[in-house]
C-alpha cells in the first residue's frame, strides 16, 4: 500500500468534510478497497472510514413498509436483521463473500463500488430501491451506470438504501468457482405493479434489467414464462471461467430458478 | 523407567495423536516469516510484466537515492555468480544430452516470463523497497512470446533462449528399442482406442507462501539462510556449490516449520540465493516474504502435459500395446528437477497395474515463455495414471464392456513383476484392492443412487480407476545413470542420552507429514520405550547429517529406514554394554519392552541402566567398545516402493448448468505396513482433495501473450470445504514392501494420483447415461466446460 | 504514525502505526503474535481470521486503526492460561484436523465463530461456513469432522477414522 492518512469520523457531516480533502477516499468495510490498495492500484491521500458513524448503521422499516438499511451496515447484519422484513434481500446478503467478509463489508461500500459481479446491485435494481446519499435520493434505475460506474459524485456518501418490499422475491447466484463472486446472479422481484428482474455478474455493462423476462413474468409469474426467452451473448462477459454464450445461458437458468423459488 | 507398552495404543500401528499439533493449534509454530533477525532489511523484487523481452535500459540511480534504500541489485551484480542449477540431465532418444539454458538469479539482458526477476531493491522497510522498485526506470523491448507448446516447436518460432538451437529441451523415447515392436502390435490389434488429452497446468499453492531470510556473520564469515524448504540440505548443496561458492561448513540452511510444500518447496529458487548473497554484500540480514500474487508468478508450476495415448487390444480385450506421445512444458528455465518429471517419473509408470507387454513413451520437453514447471504432488505419476486410466475407460465404453471387468482382466497378478518400462514391482495385490473398493464404495448400490438422482433431475455417474505409483526413488547408482545429479539416500543420527531419552536427527523434513509423531513410534516399538522418550529434530543443516529431504512419498520408506538402521546399531551396542553389566555373552542378550535380559535366566537390566553406563562408563568394557551411544546410518534403497490402489467417485451433474458435485469418493490403497493409520488417512484425504481440485477446479491459464490470467485466488479456483465430500478411505490391503526394513511403501501422493481419472470417468459416465455422446472433457471440468460438452 | 489502542486476548495493547498498517501486521510485527498468518493478498484464504468485537474478520483486510478500541481475540488467546487446549483445539488434535498447521489458526477462529452462532451445525453448514478458509493439506475431511466433534456431536459414524 502507498501511505495514507486515516480518518474515522463519527457523523456524516464530519465525513463529508474529511472527504473534501484532495485525493480523499471513502472506506466502507474495505473488503474490496483494501485488497486494491495492497496491489497499489489506488493512491488515496486520506481514507475516510464510514464505519464509525452510528447514524449510518442499522435496519429500519419505514412508514410505507419499505426496508431502509444504513449505508455502513455490514452484510452479516443485513442477513440477520432483514430476514423477517425482506427475506430475499437477507438471503442475498448471507451469500456475499464468506462469513468474515460479511462481518466487515457494507451495503454502501458494495453499491458505491458497483463491481459487475457483486450481489447487492441486483437486489437494489430489482427492488427498485432508492439510494439515499448525504445530498439526494437516487432511484436505482438511474444509479447504476456501467461497470464500476455509478451516479455518485465525488465525495458523495451513501447514507442508506431504501428497499420497497416485493410480494415475492428471490435471488439465485451461480458462483464463479475461484472468487465466488456471482458468475451470474439473478434477482427477481414481483410487485403489484409488475415484475423486475435484475442480472449481475453476466454483463460487461454491469448489473442490468432483463426487460423481456419482466414482461413475460408480468403476464405469468411462473418458470415456464421464461421458456424460449434468451439473452444475447453479445455484451456478456467472456473469460476463463465461462464464455459469453454460457453466461447468457445461465441468465435464463438462474431466472427460472429464482421465479420457481419465489412463486 | 519404561512402562509396559500396549501395541494397540502406541508404537508401530497406533493412531498416536500428533505432538506437533499443540504448537500449531496454540499459535506458537515457528514458520520462516515468524523469524526476524536483528537489523534485518527487506527486499522487493522488480519482476518482468512481459513474457519475453530484451532489457534495453535499466536505470536505478534515482531509485537508489530514495528513502531507506540500502542498495539496488541487478543482473550485473551477479555476473560471475553461478546460475540456478538443474539437478537432472536427461539424455534423449538419440543419445544426446538435453539442452540446458542458463538460469540467472537476476535477469541478464533478457526476460523470459512474466515474473522473471530483474532487479532487487533492499531497503529498511518492505514498503520503502517497493516504493523504490517502482521508481526504477526500466525499458523492455518486447519480443514475440511462445506460450503454446506446439507453436514453440514449429520452425521459425521465437526462441526462449537465443543460445539454444530451438525450444526443444529433449526428445525422449522410452523404451526406444521397443518402438518397432509396439508399432507392429498396433498394426495387429483387434481394437485401438485413442485419446488426446491435456493434463492441466497447476499451481501447488501451499498455504504458506515462500519466505527467505539471509543472514551473515562478519565475525565468523558464516552465512545462514532460513527458508521455506522441503530439503534444506539440498538447498545448501545447490546454492553453496553451484551458485554462491560457499562451502557447506560456512553455510547453514534452516527450514523451520513449513506450511506445506507439495513439491513446490523442493526447488532452489533465485530469492534464496539472492537473500544469502545480499546479506553478505550488505553485512545485514535480508528478508523476502512472497505475497500470494508473487507466488503465482515465481513458484514453480506443475503438470502441463499435452498427450496422445493409444491402447491396443486383442480380440479377447487383452491389452497388447500402449503408445504415448507427450509434450511437456518446462517453462522458461529448467527448475531443479523439472527434466525428470515427464521422463523417469512418468514413462516408468505407464504399465500401471496392467500386464501390457509392449509400451513406448515419447516425450518432448519444450521451453515456453512461462514460469518454470517442476514436480507437484505426484510429479509425473499423476500424468501417467490419468492418461492410462482414461484411455482404459474409453476403451471399455467403446467395446461395451464393464470398465472394472476390463481392468481386472488385465491386472498383473504375479510378483515380482518386471514391466516393459524398466521397473520391477516387488509386491501388490490389485484384485484385493479392487475387491475392497467395491465393498467400501458400495458399488452394488450405485444403480439405486442413480435412480434417486434422476428423480431430482440430476445426472449421476460412477468413475473407477486404479493407480500404481513409485515412491522413494532409488537406488542412487541407478538414478545416477538416469541423469540425477544427486544421490537419493537418506540419513539419520540416533543420539541416546545418558538417562535413556533419544533424539533422532533426520534429513527428512516434516511440513505436515507428522514425522515428529510417527518416527518415534518406530523407535518405541524397536526398543520398547514410550514414544515420548524420543524426539525428532529436522530442518537444520547444522544438526542433521546430510539428507535429501521430503518429496516423492519417501520419508518413512527411506528416511525411516535410515533411522531403523541407526537404531539397530544402537541396539547392537547397547546389548554389548548390557552383556558386560550382566556378565553374560553378547549373543544371549534379548531386548524386550525396554529391558535387556539374559536368555534363559531371570537376570535383566533396564534400558536406562545401559544408557547411563554408556555415558558414565565406570563399569564398562572400555577396551572393547567406545563410551557413548550415538549412531548414524545412511540408507540407500534397493528399489522404488510401489503403492497401489483402486478409487471410485460418484458425481452428480446439473444438466442445466454443467455443474459437477462430488457425491461419494472411496479409496482403497495398499501402502504396505502402516505406522500411524490416522496420519495415513490424513495424507490420502489431502491428496484426494488436491486431485478433485485438479479435476474440477484448478487451471493455470496464460493468454497468447504470456500474461497469467489465473494470477490470484480470484481466478485460480482452490478446492474449498464445500467442494468435497467426506471420503471413504481404507488401507487394510497390505502387501509389505520387500526391500525396506519397515515394509512400508509411502502414502503422500497416492490421493492426488488416483483421484483425477476417477472424477473425469464419473462425469463422462454421467453424461453418457443421459445419451450425450461425450467421450472426454479436459480438466478442470468447470461448469462451463461440462455444459459446452453437453451442447455437442 | 498514530497511536492505536485495543484489547488483545483480554490485555490492553498500544502501539504506533501508520494509516496503512494492517491489523495483521500490528498483531504479528508490533505485538509479536505470529500465530495469525498471511496466506494471500485477496482476502480469500482465511489464515488471518481473528475476532474483532466477537465477530470473525480477516485481519489482512482490516486496518489496525479500524480496530481502535476493539476487543481482539487471536489464536494465542484460545487455550486456557495453563496451556490446556480449548474444546475446538482439542478436537482438531483428536481428529487430525491439521497437517502443516498454517491454515489452522484461521480455521480454529472461524470454527469458534461458527459454533457461537450455531452450536450444532450440520456437515453442510460447517462446509459452507468455511467458504473463506482454505486448507491445502487435509482435503477438509478431518477439519469438518473436528468441528462437528467440538460441537458435541457423535462423529464416529463418519467415514474412516
UniProtKB/TrEMBL annotation, chain A:
Its EC number is 1.2.99.2. Keywords: FAD, Flavoprotein, Oxidoreductase. InterPro entries: CO_DH_flav_C, CO_DH_flav_C_dom_sf, Diverse_Substr_Oxidored, FAD-bd_PCMH, FAD-bd_PCMH-like_sf, FAD-bd_PCMH_sub1, FAD-bd_PCMH_sub2, Mopterin_DH_FAD-bd. Residues 1-168 form the FAD-binding PCMH-type domain. Gene3D superfamilies: 3.30.465.10, CO dehydrogenase flavoprotein, C-terminal domain (3.30.390.50), Uridine Diphospho-n-acetylenolpyruvylglucosamine Reductase, domain 2 (3.30.43.10). It comes from the Bacteria. It is an enzyme of class 1 (oxidoreductase). SMART domains: CO_deh_flav_C. It holds the Pfam family FAD_binding_5. GO terms for molecular function: FAD binding; oxidoreductase activity. This is Carbon monoxide dehydrogenase medium chain.
From TrEMBL, chain B:
Keywords: Molybdenum, Oxidoreductase. The keyword Phosphoprotein does not apply. Residues 26-144 form the Aldehyde oxidase/xanthine dehydrogenase a/b hammerhead domain. SUPFAM superfamilies: CO dehydrogenase molybdoprotein N-domain-like, Molybdenum cofactor-binding domain. Its EC number is 1.2.99.2. Pfam families: Ald_Xan_dh_C, MoCoBD_1, MoCoBD_2. GO terms for molecular function: iron ion binding; oxidoreductase activity. Coiled coil: none annotated. Transmembrane segments: none annotated. Gene3D superfamilies: Aldehyde oxidase/xanthine dehydrogenase, a/b hammerhead (3.90.1170.50), Aldehyde oxidase/xanthine dehydrogenase, molybdopterin binding domain (3.30.365.10). SMART domains: Ald_Xan_dh_C. This is Carbon monoxide dehydrogenase large chain. It comes from Tritonibacter horizontis.
From TrEMBL, chain C:
Keywords: 2Fe-2S, Iron, Iron-sulfur, Metal-binding, Oxidoreductase. InterPro entries: 2Fe-2S-bd, 2Fe-2S-bd_dom_sf, 2Fe-2S_ferredoxin-like_sf, 2Fe-2S_ferredoxin-type, Beta-grasp_dom_sf, Diverse_Oxidoreductases. Its EC number is 1.2.99.2. It comes from the Bacteria. It holds the Pfam family Fer2_2. The keyword Iron applies. GO terms for molecular function: 2 iron, 2 sulfur cluster binding; metal ion binding; oxidoreductase activity. It comes from Tritonibacter horizontis. This is Carbon monoxide dehydrogenase small chain. Residues 2-78 form the 2Fe-2S ferredoxin-type domain.
Amino acid at each position: 500500500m502507498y501511505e495514507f492518512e486515516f480518518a474515522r469520523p463519527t457523523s456524516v457531516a464530519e465525513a463529508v468534510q474529511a472527504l473534501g480533502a484532495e485525493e480523499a477516499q471513502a472506506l466502507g468495510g474495505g473488503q474490496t478497497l483494501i485488497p486494491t490498495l495492497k496491489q497499489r492500484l489506488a493512491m488515496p491521500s486520506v481514507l475516510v472510514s464510514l464505519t464509525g458513524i452510528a447514524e449510518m448503521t442499522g435496519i429500519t422499516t419505514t412508514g410505507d413498509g419499505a426496508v431502509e438499511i444504513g449505508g455502513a451496515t455490514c452484510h452479516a447484519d443485513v442477513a440477520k436483521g432483514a430476514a423477517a422484513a425482506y427475506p430475499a434481500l437477507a438471503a442475498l446478503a448471507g451469500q456475499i463473500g464468506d462469513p468474515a467478509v460479511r462481518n466487515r463489508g457494507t451495503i454502501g461500500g458494495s453499491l458505491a463500488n458497483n463491481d459487475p459481479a457483486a450481489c447487492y446491485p441486483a437486489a437494489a435494481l430489482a427492488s427498485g430501491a432508492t439510494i439515499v446519499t448525504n445530498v439526494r435520493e437516487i432511484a436505482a434505475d438511474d444509479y447504476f451506470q456501467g461497470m464500476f460506474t455509478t451516479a455518485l459524485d465525488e465525495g458523495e456518501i451513501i447514507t442508506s438504501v431504501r428497499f420497497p418490499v416485493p410480494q415475492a422475491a428471490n435471488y439465485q447466484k451461480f458462483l464463479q468457482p475461484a472468487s465466488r463472486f456471482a458468475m451470474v446472479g439473478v434477482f427477481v422481484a414481483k410487485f403489484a405493479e409488475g415484475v423486475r428482474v435484475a442480472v449481475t455478474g453476466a454483463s460487461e455493462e454491469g448489473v442490468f434489467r432483463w426487460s423481456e423476462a419482466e414482461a413475460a413474468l408480468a403476464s405469468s409469474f411462473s418458470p415456464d414464462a421464461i421458456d424460449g426467452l434468451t439473452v444475447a451473448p453479445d455484451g456478456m462477459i467472456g473469460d476463463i471461467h465461462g464464455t459469453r454464450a454460457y453466461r447468457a445461458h445461465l441468465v435464463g437458468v438462474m431466472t427460472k430458478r429464482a421465479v420457481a423459488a419465489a412463486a | 523407567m519404561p512402562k509396559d507398552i500396549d501395541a494397540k495404543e502406541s508404537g508401530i500401528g497406533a493412531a498416536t495423536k500428533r505432538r506437533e499439533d499443540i504448537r500449531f493449534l496454540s499459535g506458537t509454530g515457528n514458520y520462516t516469516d515468524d523469524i526476524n533477525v536483528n537489523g534485518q532489511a527487506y527486499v522487493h523484487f522488480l519482476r518482468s510484466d512481459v513474457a519475453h523481452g530484451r532489457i534495453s535500459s535499466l536505470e536505478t540511480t534515482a531509485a537508489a537515492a530514495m528513502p531507506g534504500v540500502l542498495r539496488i541489485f541487478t543482473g550485473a551484480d551477479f555476473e560471475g555468480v553461478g546460475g540456478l542449477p538443474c539437478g537432472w540431465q536427461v539424455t534423449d532418444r538419440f543419445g544426446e544430452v538435453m539442452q540446458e539454458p542458463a538460469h540467472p538469479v537476476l535477469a541478464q539482458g533478457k526476460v523470459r516470463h512474466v515474473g522473471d526477476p530483474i532487479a532487487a531493491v533492499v531497503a529498511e522497510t518492505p514498503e520503502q523497497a517497493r516504493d523504490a522498485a517502482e521508481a526504477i526506470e526500466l525499458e523492455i523491448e518486447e519480443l514475440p512470446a511462445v506460450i503454446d507448446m506446439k507453436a514453440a516447436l514449429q520452425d521459425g518460432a521465437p526462441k526462449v533462449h537465443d543460445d539454444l538451437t530451438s525450444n526443444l529441451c529433449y526428445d525422449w523415447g522410452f523404451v526406444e528399442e521397443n518402438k518397432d515392436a509396439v508399432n507392429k502390435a498396433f498394426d495387429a490389434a483387434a481394437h485401438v482406442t485413442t485419446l488426446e488429452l491435456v493434463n492441466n497446468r497447476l499451481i501447488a499453492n501451499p498455504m504458506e507462501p515462500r519466505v527467505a531470510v539471509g543472514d551473515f556473520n562478519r565475525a565468523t564469515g558464516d552465512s545462514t539462510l532460513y527458508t521455506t524448504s522441503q530439503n534444506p540440505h539440498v538447498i545448501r548443496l545447490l546454492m553453496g556449490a553451484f551458485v554462491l561458492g560457499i562451502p557447506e561448513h560456512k553455510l547453514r540452511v534452516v527450514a523451520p516449520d513449513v506450511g506445506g510444500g507439495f513439491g513446490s518447496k523442493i526447488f532452489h529458487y533465485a530469492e534464496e540465493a539472492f537473500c544469502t548473497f545480499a546479506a553478505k554484500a550488505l553485512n545485514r540480514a535480508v528478508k523476502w516474504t512472497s505475497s500470494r500474487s508473487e507466488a503465482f508468478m515465481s513458484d514453480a508450476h506443475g503438470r502441463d502435459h499435452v498427450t496422445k495415448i493409444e491402447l491396443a487390444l486383442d480380440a479377447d480385450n487383452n491389452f497388447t500395446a500402449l503408445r504415448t506421445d507427450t509434450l511437456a512444458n518446462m517453462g522458461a528455465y529448467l527448475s531443479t528437477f523439472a527434466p525428470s518429471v515427464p521422463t523417469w517419473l512418468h514413462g516408468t509408470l505407464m504399465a500401471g497395474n496392467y500386464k501390457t507387454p509392449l509400451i513406448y513413451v515419447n516425450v518432448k520437453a519444450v521451453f515456453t515463455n512461462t514460469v518454470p514447471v517442476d514436480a507437484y504432488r505426484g510429479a509425473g505419476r499423476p500424468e501417467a495414471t490419468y492418461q492410462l486410466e482414461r484411455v482404459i475407460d474409453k476403451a471399455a465404453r467403446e467395446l461395451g464392456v464393464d470398465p472394472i471387468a476390463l481392468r481386472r482382466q488385465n491386472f498383473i497378478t504375479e510378483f515380482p513383476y518386471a514391466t516393459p518400462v524398466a521397473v520391477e514391482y516387488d509386491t501388490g495385490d490389485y484384485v484385493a484392492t479392487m475387491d475392497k473398493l467395491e465393498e467400501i464404495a458400495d458399488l452394488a448400490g450405485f444403480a439405486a443412487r442413480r435412480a434417486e438422482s434422476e428423480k431430482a433431475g440430476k445426472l449421476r455417474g460412477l468413475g473407477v480407476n486404479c493407480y500404481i505409483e513409485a515412491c522413494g526413488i532409488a537406488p542412487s547408482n541407478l538414478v545416477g545413470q538416469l541423469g540425477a545429479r544427486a544421490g537419493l539416500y537418506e540419513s539419520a543420527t540416533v543420539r541416546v542420552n545418558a538417562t535413556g531419552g533419544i533424539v533422532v536427527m533426520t534429513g527428512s523434513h516434516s511440513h505436515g507429514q507428522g514425522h515428529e509423531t510417527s518416527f518415534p513410534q518406530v523407535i518405541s516399538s524397536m526398543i520398547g520405550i514410550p514414544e515420548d522418550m524420543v524426539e525428532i529434530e529436522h530442518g537444520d543443516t547444522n544438526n542433521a547429517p546430510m539428507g535429501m529431504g521430503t518429496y516423492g512419498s519417501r520419508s518413512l520408506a527411506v528416511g525411516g529406514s535410515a533411522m531403523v538402521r541407526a537404531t539397530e546399531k544402537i541396539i547392537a551396542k547397547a546389548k554389548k554394554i548390557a552383556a558386560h553389566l550382566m556378565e553374560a555373552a553378547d549373543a544371549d542378550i534379548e531386548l524386550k519392552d525396554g529391558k535387556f535380559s539374559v536368555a534363559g535366566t531371570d537376570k535383566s537390566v533396564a534400558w536406562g541402566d545401559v544408557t547411563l553406563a554408556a555415558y558414565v562408563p565406570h563399569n564398562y568394557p572400555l577396551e572393547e567398545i567406545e563410551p557413548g551411544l550415538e549412531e548414524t546410518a545412511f540408507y540407500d534403497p534397493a528399489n522404488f516402493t510401489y503403492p497401489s490402489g483402486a478409487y471410485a467417485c460418484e458425481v452428480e451433474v446439473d444438466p442445466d448448468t454443467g455443474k459437477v458435485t462430488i457425491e461419494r469418493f472411496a479409496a482403497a490403497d495398499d501402502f504396505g505396513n502402516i505406522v500411524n493409520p490416522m496420519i495415513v488417512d490424513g495424507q490420502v484425504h489431502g491428496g484426494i482433495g488436491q486431485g478433485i481440485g485438479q479435476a474440477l477446479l484448478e487451471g493455470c491459464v496464460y493468454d497468447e501473450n504470456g500474461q497469467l490470467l489465473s494470477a490470484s485466488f480470484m481466478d485460480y479456483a482452490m478446492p474449498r470445504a464445500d467442494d468435497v465430500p467426506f471420503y471413504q478411505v481404507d488401507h487394510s490391503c497390505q502387501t509389505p514392501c520387500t526391500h525396506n526394513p519397515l515394509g512400508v511403501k509411502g502414502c503422500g501422493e497416492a490421493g492426488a494420483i488416483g483421484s483425477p481419472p476417477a472424477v473425469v470417468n464419473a462425469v463422462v459416465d454421467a453424461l453418457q447415461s443421459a445419451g450425450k455422446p461425450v467421450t472426454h472433457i479436459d480438466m478442470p471440468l468447470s461448469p462451463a466446460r461440462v455444459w459446452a460438452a453437453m451442447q455437442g | 504514525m498514530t497511536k492505536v489502542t485495543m484489547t488483545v486476548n483480554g490485555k490492553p495493547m498500544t502501539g504506533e502505526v501508520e494509516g496503512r498498517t494492517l491489523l495483521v501486521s500490528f498483531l504479528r510485527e508490533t505485538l509479536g503474535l505470529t500465530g495469525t498468518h498471511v496466506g494471500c493478498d485477496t482476502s480469500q484464504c482465511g489464515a488471518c481470521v481473528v475476532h474483532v468485537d466477537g465477530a470473525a474478520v480477516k485481519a489482512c483486510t482490516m486496518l489496525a486503526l479500524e480496530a481502535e478500541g476493539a476487543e481482539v481475540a487471536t489464536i494465542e488467546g484460545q487455550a486456557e492460561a495453563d496451556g490446556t487446549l480449548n474444546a475446538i483445539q482439542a478436537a482438531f488434535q483428536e481428529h487430525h484436523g491439521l497437517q502443516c498447521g498454517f491454515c489452522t489458526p484461521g480455521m480454529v477462529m472461524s470454527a469458534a465463530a461458527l459454533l457461537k452462532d450455531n452450536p450444532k451445525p450440520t456437515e453442510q453448514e460447517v462446509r459452507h461456513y468455511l467458504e473463506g478458509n482454505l486448507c491445502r493439506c487435509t482435503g477438509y475431511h478431518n477439519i469438518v469432522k473436528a468441528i462437528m466433534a467440538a460441537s458435541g456431536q457423535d462423529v464416529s459414524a463418519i467415514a474412516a477414522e
